[in-house]
Amino acid sequence: MGQLLVADTTTRGRLPERVRRQVTRQQDATERLVGWVQLAVVAVFGALYWLSPKTFEAHDTFQPVPYALAAYLGFTLIRLAASYRTHLGDWFLYLSIVIDMALLFVLIWSFHLQYEQPASFYLKSPTLLYVFIFIALRALRFEARFVLTAGLAAAAGWAVLVIYVVTVNPEDPMITRNYVTYLTSNAVLLGAEFDKIISILTVTGILALAIVRARKLLVSSVAESTAANDLSRFFSPEVADRIVQSEEIGVGAGESRDAAILNLDLRGFTPLAQQVAPDAVMRLLADYQAEMVPIVRKHGGSIDKFLGDGIMATFGASASTDSYAADALRAVEEIMVAARAWQARLAAGGRPCVPVNAAVACGRVVFGAVGETDRLEYTVIGEAVNLSAKLEKHNAALGSRALVTRHAYDTACQQGYRPAAPIQELPGARIEGVGQPVDVVRLA
């Protein structure tokens, strides 16, 4: 059992702090569950006591059961309330275990007074079986040390009751070696009592061993869950899910699908960044990304990468969809409205502000992992990716805010998109870095 306790403590010591906090939250929830189970147990005890027929005269016999149940109920309610108000410290949990066992064994000890029998009378009480409920309750926390504490407290409590029986009357310890005499009288069979103690310790050891094994799975599960949450901060939720659920992620495997590529950029950001303090630059970027990214995700977009003041997002690449172009253009329209409002707020606060440009192109792209074994990155590759980036820069030449290829616009309309305002068609536009003229649509 000592090795189990060491293993349990060692496992706790190896946990990263963020995983430990998550495990602690799970354990706090478990303590509340334990409190409710204990409340249910005392309610069952009380119901059974009041409904069961009494074999003694109520008016002239000492009745400790109601007092013990009332004490246990009071402690359970205090413990339950405390579990909702604060994190229960280890000392409180150990004290709780001792009090649980002490109340149970005091109750068992009182039976010989209640029924006016020799002390050995209570050794036959089936109420001893309830110790296994209290031991099992501690297993809900997935910490072997509390199970071990409960088991050792139970074994020690029963040993004390046995010692009391054989020493309370030195002239007649009531010990027998006859099994039949033991079963048919108040005689004490020490072997039977040792069997009960061994059974308590054996069950405790098995539960503790199971918990040590289960705790490793719990820690692994919490670590994976925490890692998945952290991944979603560095990757889009779709990519994070793909990473978590994939059996193996390797370079060279990709998927080809139709998608829309959206590029956003702050026009004039580079000159502005050279004129203002670094903190102001980073705060502007953070505000800009906080405004734009939720809109992209709202319309089903996935952030591919942040490129300084640029944001590249994909629609239909990481997760296939039949409305990728329509989703991208709806996102652009909302982004333009949000960008104007954002600029107005910055100007009203006396902060530097620059307009937001957007461009969308769509077509067949390849989505997959690139890099080398120790450094991978999910990305998209294709003509639409390059065209969207170059089209975004063309905004500066035209003085426009949002441009989309005619192909992307027609595809979006086929998918149910309807522009919120009149558009301007720009056929045969010459875009720097693109060899052939491109039919372009300017969104209002």
UniProtKB/TrEMBL annotation:
Membrane-spanning intervals of the chain: 33-52, 64-82, 91-109, 121-140, 147-167, 187-212
Q: Which GO terms describe its biological process?
A: cyclic nucleotide biosynthetic process; intracellular signal transduction
Quick check: keyword Transmembrane helix in the entry? Answer: yes
One Pfam family name from the record? Guanylate_cyc
> Which of UniProt's keywords are assigned here?
Membrane, Transmembrane, Transmembrane helix
Q: Which residues form the Guanylate cyclase domain?
A: 260-392
GO molecular function terms listed in the Swiss-Prot or TrEMBL record: adenylate cyclase activity
Q: Which Gene3D superfamilies match?
A: Nucleotide cyclase (3.30.70.1230)
Is Transmembrane found in the keyword set?
Answer: yes
Q: What is this protein called?
A: Adenylate/guanylate cyclase domain-containing protein
Organism expressing this protein natively: Rhodovibrio salinarum
